[in-house]
Protein 1
Amino acid sequence: MMMVSTSIDIIPRGETTFVEQYIAALLASVSTLRSRRNTLASIFSLPPEILVMTFTYIVEETNFKIHADIITRRSGIPTSMIITHVCRHWRQVALECPSLWTFIDRLSAPWIAIMLERSKEAALVVIYNANALPLPDCDTVGALVRLLSQLPPIKLLKLHTSSTVVDCVLGCLSSQPAPLLQIFKYDILGAMIREFPSGPYQTPFFKDTPLYSGVLS
C-alpha cells in the first residue's frame, strides 16, 4: 500500500493542482484501509454460496411483502441494488448471481436496463404497472418496450398499461418467441379488460410458448 506523508510543509505555495492530487492520494489510502478493515470482519469468512442464499432470501422476501402490500418500495430502488452498496465483497457476489436480478417490477427505465443486463440469461418475472412509474409518457413507453424486447427469457408477465399503448404491447408480444412464458395477465387502464383464453395452449399473439399455462387469475 502506498504511504502518504501527512506533512503539509511539503506542499508548494500556490500549487492548487498539487493540493488536489495530495487530497486524492489521502482519500485513496483511507479507502484502501477501510476495505482492509472490512475483510477482517467475521462475515467475510462466509463462503459466497451462503451469501447468495442469504441475498436470495432477502430479495424474495422483500418482493413478496411489496406485492402483498405489507411494505412499500419507497425509493423504487431494487433490493438487490441495495445489497451491492454494503461493501465491495457483497457487490461482487451479488453481481455474479443473475437470479438476484430477475424480479423486475415498478421500476424506472434506468433500473430496468440494469436489471436486464445483470440477470443475463436467467428466467425473468416481469410486473409492469404504468401507474407506479412517475415518468413522462415517452419514458414510460420506452421502458415498456425495453422490457418486452426481452420476451424470450420471461416466465411470468403481468402488465398494467394505458389503452394508448395496447397495439404497441401486442406488437411486441407477437414478434418474438416466448419459450419460458408460463403465466400472463394484461390489465388496461381506461378500457375494459381484454379477455384472453386460458388453458394449456398459447394465445393467438404469442409464438412458441410450450410452457404457457394460461392467464393469471
Protein 2
Amino acid sequence: MKPTLLFCCAAAVFTASSSSSLAFQTTTTTRLPNKVALAGRRITSSSTARSLFFNNNQATQQPIETEEEKQKRLKLERLAEIEAGEIRRQRRVSEDKLGYLFLFALQFLPLVGNDRYLSIAYFFGLAVTTVYLGGRQEVIDAPEKVTKKNALYAPVGASLAIGGLYLLLKNGLDPTSLYAVGVTVFGALCISDIGVPLLRNLLPSVDFGTAEIDLPEGIAKKLDVDRLPIDGLITLGLGLLCTVVYWAPVALENKFLVSNIIAWALGMVSLGAISLGSFQTGAILLAGLFCYDVFWVFGTDVMMTVATKVEAPVKFLYTAPPSDTPKDYPFSVLGLGDVVIPGLFVRFMGKVDEVLQPKNLSYFTTATFAYGAGLAACFGANEIFHNGQPALLYLDPSLVGSALACAAVNNQVSDVWEFEESGDEKPEEV
C-alpha cells in the first residue's frame, strides 16, 4: 500500500475507535445524579469536540514529501508508464504479426535472384508494409508535432542539406564515413527500441516486465539507475551487432540486408516519433517536398549523385541485375524519405479515422492503398523511361487527392480539411 493510503486508513481506524469510546462514555454518564450527570455530559461533549478536532486534523494532514522521495516517486511512475506502453506495443505487434512475418520472409527474396522485377517486388512489399505497420504502431510518448512553419521551410532545409553534401563531394571531400557513423549509432538505438515488442512476442513466456539485471554500483551511480530491463539490453545488443556487421570489411553486396534492417528501424521509429498535427500541415509538407523532389531529380544531378556516392543506411538496397555495361552503382535504390514522408501522412489519416469515425470509407485504409498505387506508378514510370524517378511526384498527389476524395464520399470534406490533433491526447490505458 502507498504511504498516503496507509496514513488515511490509520486515521480512519483511530477516528472509529474514538467514536466508539465516546459513545460508551456518554451512555455511562446518564446513570449519575442529575447535576453530576449534567457535568459529566458537559465534560463528555468537550472531550468529544476536542477529539473530533484533533482527529480531523490528523485525517487531513498530509506527510511532507522530501525532494528525494519526490524524485523516487516520479521515477517509479515513469517506469510504470513505460511498462504500460510496452504492453500496448506488444499487443499491437501481436495483432499485426502477419505483416511482420511477411517483412521477415521478404528478406529471403534476394536469395532467389536479382532480377529487375524481383527488386520491384521487394521494394513495393517492403515500403507498403512498413507504411501500414508504422501507421498502426503504438508509442509510449506523445510524438513531436510538425508546425505549419516547419512544414513550409522543410524543403529549404532539405535543399541546403543535400546541396551541402553535393558541394563537399564535388570538392573532393567525402563526408560518407562521418555521416554513416552517426546514422548507424542512431540506428542501433532504433533497433533496440523497435525490437522490444518483437522480442516480447517471440518469447511470450518470459515476463520481461519484471526481468531486470542489477548494475554494478559504479555504473549505477553514473547512469542514475540501479537496474536495466533485459529486453532492452538484448535488443540493444542486436542493434550494436548490426552496426558492427555494417562496418565489417565485407563488400556491401554481401551485407546490404543489414543496411536495410537499420534503415527500416530508423523509418519505423521516425513514423512513431513525428506527427503532422493537422491535415493542412500535412498538405503543405507534401506539396513542398513534391517540388523539392522534382527539382533535384529532374533539374540537376544532385539527388542521384548524393544517393549513390554517400553510402549510409538511409535507403533500401537491392542488388542490380547483371548487365553488359558496367554500372557506377551496383544496387537499385528506394530512398528512406519515400517511405517516411508519405508514411507520416498515412499514419495521420489513421488519427482522422479515430476521431471522425467515417461511415463509408476508412481514411487510413484509403491512404495505404493510395500509397501503394502511387509507388506502383513510380515504378512503372521508371520502367518506361529507364531513369531515376522522384517518388514524391507520384505519391503526394495520390495521398492528398485520395484523402479529399474519401472525405467527399464520407461527406466530411470540411471536417478533414480543418482537422487537427488535440494537444491533450493520452495513450489508451492498459
Protein 3
Amino acid sequence: MKKLSKLSLVCVIFFGFFLLSTQARWHNHTKHSKHNHPHKISYISQPPSSSPGPAASYSPPEEPKNPYNSTPGVFNVRLYGAVGDGQTDDTQAFKMAWDTACQSESPAKIIVPNHFTIMIQSTIFTGPCLSGLVLQVDGVIVPPDGPESWPKNNSRRQWLVFYRINKMSLQGSGVIDGRGDKWWQLPCKPHMGINGTTLPGPCDSPVAIRFFMSSNLTVQGLRIKNSPQFHFRFDGCINVNVDSISISAPARSPNTDGIHIENTNDVKIYNSVISNGDDCVSIGSGCYDVDIRNITCGPGHGISIGSLGKHNSRACVKNITVRDSIIRVSDNGVRIKTWQGGSGEVSGVTFSNIHMDNVRNPIMIDQFYCLTKQCSNQTAAVYVSNILYSGIKGTYDVRNAPMHFGCSDSMPCTNLTLSYVELLPAVGDMMSDPYCWNAYGQLQTVTIPPISCLLEGAPRTLLSDEIDRC
C-alpha cells in the first residue's frame, strides 16, 4: 500500500510538470506569432566576427542614376555595349557614349579602356557639346581591315571625324591603328605599278583622324600608326595643341602625312616623334601662327609648307616657325613647295636650330612642284618672301644639293636670310654646290658649303602691284 502511494505521488508530480511545460511552450509560441516573424532556416554561413553583435541585415545596392555609367562624368564605352575584341562592330556603342557625354552639362570623359580593341566604322562625331570633353584612349581603336571590309555606303575618304567641337582633348596611353597596309597596296598608289608607276582604279583612302571647323583642341600622349592616308588632318580649326605623340608608318607607305593643317590658325606641335611615307608635318593654305618645336622627323619627306597654288588657286601662309628639331634619313628637310600658276603669298617663315641627319634636300624652295613630268609652264606663282634659315646643321645625301632655291621666273623669291648654316656630306668629302634660280637674299654668316648663287638686293623687275599679298 505504501509502495502504491509513492508511485501515485510520482505520477502526480510528473503530470503536473508536463502541464506546466506544455503551457509554457504554448504561451511562448503565442507570443512570437503575435509579432508575425516566422522562423526560417538559413544555409548561408555568416562571416566570423571578432565580437558578437546584432545580425547584419541585407539591403540591395542602390542602382546608379545612369545605368551606363557608375562614375559621374565618366563614360566607359564598354558600359555602352562595346565588346572590344577588335572584330565586333562597336560603332553604335561608341557613338552612344559620345552622344551621352556630349550632352553632359559638366566636363565629360569618354574612356576606351586598356586591354580592349574597339573596332569603329567611318563615323562623324558632331558637336558642339554642352561642355568640355576628353576622349581618353588607353586601349586600341581600329577601323575595318582594308578596302574589302569597308562598308560600301561609308565614306572612303575619312575614318574618324570630329566636327564643330569646342574644348576637346584626345589623349591617353593607347593606340589608334589605321590598318593601312591593304590600302597602300591598291594599284593606283605610287610605287605600286611597274617601275614606280601607278595604275588606274579606285584610289580613295581614308584619313585616320580629321578635325573640321573645331576650336581649342588638344592631342596628347597617343600613338597613331599605319593610317591609310594622312594620320591627322585639321581643317578650319583654331587653337590646336599637339604634344608628346608618336606617329609611325613604313617609309614607303604612300601619302601617309603625319599631321596636315589647312585653313587652321594658332597651332602648336611640340615634343613628338613622326616617321612615315610622306611629310611629317605639312602646312596648307590659310594657315597662320604655327609653332613647331622639338620634333623628331624621319624617315619621311620632312616638314613642308605646301604644296600651294594647285589648279591656279590662291594660297596664303604666314608666321610659321619650325625650331629645335631633328630630321633624319628623309627625302627633304625643311621645304616650301608651290605649283606654277598659283597666286597668294608665303611670308614670315623661320626655320631655326634644326639638325639634319643624312637628308637629301635639307633646305628647299621648289616653285616648280609637279607630281609628273607633264606640268606646263605658267607665269603666275605664289610669292615667297621673308624666309629665315638659322642654325641648320648636319649631313646631307650627296645625290642632291644641300640647298635648293628654285624660284619662279616671273615671281622671284625675296629676302631669304641664311645664318649659321653648316651642311656636310653624309658620305665622303666631296661637297655639292647649292642651287639657286631667281632667288634674292642675304648671308648673315659664312655658310658651309659656301653659297654664291643667291642674288643680292631686290629684283628690279618685280613691281609691288604685281604681288598678290594676303
Protein 4
Amino acid sequence: MRCHPSALHNYYGTTAAAAAAAVKLASLALIICVGVAGNGALSVALLRDASLHKAPYVFLLDLCVADALRSAVCLPFVAASVHRGGSAWPHGALRCRLLAVLSALLCFHGALLLLCVSVTRYLAIAHHRFYATRVNACVCGALVCAAWTLSAAAALPPVFGAYAFAREEEEEEEQCGFEHRHLRANDTPGFVLTLAAVVSATHAVYVKTLCFVYDHRKMKPAQPVPAAVSQNWTFHGPGASGQAAANWIAGFGRGPTPPTLVGVRQAASSSSSSSSSSSHHGGARRLLVLDEFKMEKRIGRMYYMMTLSFLVLWAPYLATCCVRIFVKGAAVPQVYLTAAVWMTFVQAGVNPIISLVFNKELRLRLRACFPWCLGTQTPMEPYYVI
C-alpha cells in the first residue's frame, strides 16, 4: 500500500508543528517558573534582610518585581496562544491592546532603569564621596519612579489610539504586540529607536566607567617626593600615602591633629585593650574605604552583566523590527523571528541567575532567608579592615 506524497507531506508537517509547539510550551513553562520563583525569592530576600536595604539594591528589587510581573501576566497568554496553534485572539481587542502595552511598558522600564543604574555605578566609582553622601535609598526610589513615569509615557499612548496598532502580530509572534511595518505606514519607529538609544547610552556610561578605572590604574613616571612628616605616626605631607591619615580618622591616632587633617572629626579612640574589645562587640564601624570601593565594583559588574544580557537577548528582535520598518516589503524568516521573540522571553528570568552568580553577598543572604531549600546556613561573622 502506497501513500500519496501529499499525505506524507501533511503528516510530517503536522508532526513537526506538534513537536515545535511542545518545545515552545516546555521552554515557556521553564521561563515562567524561573522568572516567578527566582524573582520572587530574590525580592523576598531583599525585603526581609535589613543589611540589603541599600541604594544599589533598590534598583534590583524593582527589576525583580517587573520581571516577575512579566513572567506571571504576559507569558501565560503566550503559552495559551501556542497551545491554540496560533489561532485568532479569543479575548477581545481591548485585552490584546492592554497586554501589548504592558509588555512595552515593562520593556521600556527595564531599559530606563538600567540606564539609571549605570549612572549611579559611575558615580560610585568616579565620585565615591559624592555617591556615599548624596545617593541613598530615597534618591534611588525617586529614580525608579522616574523610570516608571517615562516608560508609561512611551507605552500608554496606543491605549488611547494615538499610534497605529494591530493585533495581527499574534499570528507571527504568538503574542500581542505593536505592529511593525514600513515607517510610512506605521508609528512604531519612534519606539524602536528610543529603546536602541537608551541601551546605547547605558553602554556608553559603562565604557566611560571602564575608561576611568583604566586611567587610574596606569603607572605614572616616578617622581621624587620629600619624606612624609609625622609627629605621632600619622604621616602627612607630600610623601604620605593617605593610609596613616585614614587610620587617624578611624580613631587610632594620638596627640595633636596633623595640619592636613584640621577640621576632620576623629572617631572615638579604641587603642586600649578594654575599649578595643568593647568596640568590636559593640559593632563600632571602622574606615572601610577600600573594601566599600571593591564592593561597589562587584555590584557594578553584576549590573553590567544584566545590561549586557538585556542587549544580547533583545538585539535580534530589535533587528527584525528595524528590517520591517526601514526595508519595505522585507520578509523575516519565521524561524529567526520565533527565536528572537523567545530570547526576549528569556530575559524575564535571567536577572536572578546573574545576581546570584556575580554577587556573593546576595547568595549568603538568600541562603540565610531560605535555609530549608539552599542547604546549611553559613554563619555571618563581622570583619574589620584597617
